[in-house]
Specification:
Elements: H1 2-16, H2 21-25, H3 30-51, E1 67-77, E2 80-89, H4 109-118, H5 123-134, H6 140-148, H7 150-158, E3 165-180, E4 183-195, E5 201-209, H8 214-226, E6 231-237, H9 243-250, E7 255-258, H10 260-268, H11 276-287, H12 292-306, H13 311-319, H14 321-324, H15 332-338, H16 342-355, H17 364-378, H18 389-399
Parallel strand pairs: 3-6, 6-7
Antiparallel strand pairs: 1-2, 3-4, 4-5
Helix pairs in contact: 4-17, 8-9, 10-13, 11-12, 12-13, 16-17
Length: 406
């Protein structure tokens, strides 16, 4: 095996010896010539297997079928477009396997298109990129057909069975522009990110609705239950009105934790840029307190200092206090896991990088294709449990007695 490899390396070295990069990789270069020869030789081998005899062999006489010339065909590969000659048989029964009838792309070329699409490139941008890189002319229809093949994967992924218990589920939405009925409209894309019992992130699904609202979230939670989720220990959410009630209707035992980042961000909307740093520091005294009681004292001190000028801030915290304080029941190292939706906001940030190049998506289906491919790429990096997960799970098993499977 080693000798064969050495001989192959020698032949390849001899083949490219003294040649420029253009002569190797350019149009009509060595790489394309090799691709052409390899594909054509493989097709000749398939024809020999189909007929049962080598070209010009005596045993092929009077067999009822024989070679019948060749037809030209252009195929798209990772190295560009290649013109090949496809052998034919007289009976018309030859069905090539490497390059099937009506197939114009070798395996791997579609993956290239999907990879570019997953990075947020539009159909026109992909078309231009492939032309610049490989000298390959690809029609917008072909690119759409390739990316449309993803919709079946999206449907299967969206309908897959889920775990029975998720210790933490983050629920949030991002907003994108889509073209609907000839008009550009903003739609909410709902995301549910679960942390499973092993501490790994798992996006449970994505949904598109008219606008973010508790009624639509209720339909999502119902779907999660129908897909197998029986219990959620903690749901981390923003301050959307009616959200806790929607969660309670499907998962009555679930503890709802408001995202502190959202609370602070919403509070600072009432404050001028000049004073935001000072107000943010005083708000930090509330959520960084050691206990819920000391947090309440810090909120009272904040109100005494700022209520005369910004009365809405302390009022908004008091109105949502029961959903603000659950994380105080946990040790400091666990609090940072549950008191913010940063985990899902990180995903949203990466998805926005993919979508920001587009003015508006042509259809909701195009949104699903792009986001699914992007999520698939992002999730490849989710190979480790989140930090301090063992300590968190042990604590959950005590706090939520009997609800954490052993």
């Amino acid at each position: 095996m080693a000798k064969k490899k050495d001989r192959t390396d020698e032949l390849l070295s001899e083949l490219v010896k003294g040649k420029s990069p253009e002569e190797i990789l350019g149009e009509g270069g060595v790489l394309k010539q090799l691709t052409k020869r390899l594909v054509e030789n493989a097709l000749e081998g398939e024809m020999t297997e189909h007929l049962g005899y080598e070209p010009h062999a005596a045993e092929g006489k009077n067999t009822g079928n024989s070679r019948n010339g060749k037809s030209e065909k252009t195929i798209h590969t990772d190295t560009g477009s290649v013109e090949i000659d496809v052998p034919r048989d007289r009976a018309g029964t030859f069905e090539p396997k490497l390059v099937r009838k009506r197939q114009r792309r070798l395996e791997g070329f579609d993956d290239k298109i999907l990879s570019l699409y997953a990075r947020g490139m539009t159909t026109r941008e992909i078309q231009g990129h492939l032309k610049d890189l490989y000298g390959t002319e690809i029609s917008p229809a072909l690119i759409s057909n390739v990316t449309d093949s993803v919709l079946k994967d999206v449907q299967a992924w969206q309908g897959r069975a889920l775990d029975s218990v998720y210790p933490i589920v983050y629920l949030d939405a991002l907003h994108l522009k889509m073209r609907l009925d000839g008009l550009v409209q903003t739609r909410a894309v709902y995301l549910a990110l679960g942390i499973n019992l092993e501490g790994h992130k798992e996006l449970l699904g994505l949904w598109i609705g008219e606008k973010e609202g508790s009624k639509f979230w209720l339909s999502i939670l119902t779907e999660l239950r129908n897909r197998g989720v029986q219990d959620i220990l903690i749901a981390c959410v923003d301050g959307l009105t009616g959200f806790p009630e929607a969660i309670a209707s499907e998962f009555p035992k679930t503890e709802v934790q408001l995202c502190i980042v959202h609370m602070v961000r919403n509070s600072l909307r009432y404050v001028s840029w000049k004073e935001r740093k000072t107000v943010a520091a005083d708000l930090r005294e509330i959520y960084s307190a050691s206990t819920a009681e000391s947090a309440a004292s810090a909120l009272e001190a904040f109100a005494q200092k700022w209520d005369q000028r910004f009365p809405n801030i302390s009022r908004s915290w008091r109105d949502r206090w029961e959903q603000v304080i659950p994380f105080f029941a946990y040790p400091p190292e666990i609090r940072k896991v549950i008191y913010t939706t940063n985990a899902i906001e990180s995903i949203q940030s990466q998805l926005r990088r993919v979508t920001r190049q587009r003015g508006a998506f042509p259809t909701p289906e195009s949104v699903k294709k792009v986001l699914y491919l992007a999520i698939d790429r992002i999730s490849e990096r989710w190979n480790r449990p989140i930090r301090d997960w063992v300590a968190a799970l042990n604590h959950f098993s005590i706090v939520f007695d009997g609800r954490v499977p052993l």
